[in-house]
Design a protein that fits this description.
Blueprint lengths: L2 H20 L6 H29 L4 H22 L2
Helix pairs in contact: 2-3
Amino acid sequence: MPAGLLGLGAFAAVTVLGVTVLTGARLRRALWLALNAGVLAGVVFVHWLIHQSLFGVGRLCPYCAVVRVVTIALFWYVTLRNLGV
């Protein structure tokens, strides 16, 4: 499966959860932990993609760089929220 399709599905799920939280809904702890696990998997995948871009392809894509920054920031936000910081 292409990385773009994985990203579309993952970011769609995160967007739905974000809109749900913005409407005032309170998500269960298990859902927050599942989101944290999913975002952790995303960060691992993003780091692998960074490695492939730099050493395999030898080029960087500006759009891909934005997606990587957003994924890493999302990981930190969800992790710190789950830790109660």
